[in-house]
Automatic annotation (TrEMBL):
One of its GO terms (cellular component) is protein-DNA complex. The lineage of its organism: Bacteria, Bacillati, Actinomycetota, Actinomycetes, Micrococcales. It comes from Leifsonia shinshuensis. The keyword Transcription regulation applies. The keyword Transcription applies. This is DNA-binding transcriptional LysR family regulator. Pfam families: HTH_1 (PF00126), LysR_substrate (PF03466). Belongs to the LysR transcriptional regulatory family.
Amino acid sequence: MDVPIHTLRYFCVLAEELHFAAAAARLNISPPSLSQQISRLESVVGEPLFERTSRAVALTTAGEELLPHARRAVDAHQDVIDWITARHNAPAPVLRIGVVAAGAGPLTSRAIASAVQRIPGLRLEMRKVGFFDPQVELAAGRVDAVFAPAPLAVDEDVVTATPMWTEPRVLVVPAGHHLAERASITIDETRDETFVAVSGGDPRAIAWWLVDPRPDGSHPRVGPVAQDIDGILALVGAGMGVNIAAASAATHYRRSELAFVPIEDIEPATILLCTRRRRDPVVAAFVAVVEAEARAARA
């Protein structure tokens, strides 16, 4: 039995995107080709890995069980490629960038493009980071810089968290929700909603995103929870509740089953750039690039 590594990579990307067109675009292949590769993997496994409907894609139980194994295999393969590359090429500066949810929205892409132009030979590696994991990932050396939303609890002796960007917050609702077509809403209009929240983590950060307590002293009703943004959006799309996110989620996670409605009377989200307190020259140069892009965006 042989499972090509590229097939596992395709599976992992689809598991993250839960959208064939978005995953195919990310992989630079056509949706039919991606569907064919996934079908072949399901034939090898002997059962479906994804539940497919006209409106949504979701992992089956088998898919959820396979995902951590597939990720380890893909990461191990990349480690081998990196080792071979290092043996044959002169050392090049490497910057491992972590992104929580949608990161800093459009600023992320602009900063990365600018960094590639300004730092000779720079090689970038991108990694998704959990809502409350920036310090853990930085301390372990798996990333060198992380775009993460505030509030974020960090040990200031270990991590430097610099505010870079602010953006409004939006209510994420199913496309058929009674608020989905509104141009904007107030937070008071969500008083009867059930909220999908992130599991675990800093209660103060969770409360801030839920706007808990509300201006009138009431508390939002919290329902299902998920570990990451993909899980949260999947629950919202399934009609299990609503969520509050940064406005850039509307672009980064655009899906037909979701609507993103601006909330006009709550504090905007602040995006932080987190690094280890001791920065090497490449990281310091990247921070300077991001700061310059942020200043230009605010001008």
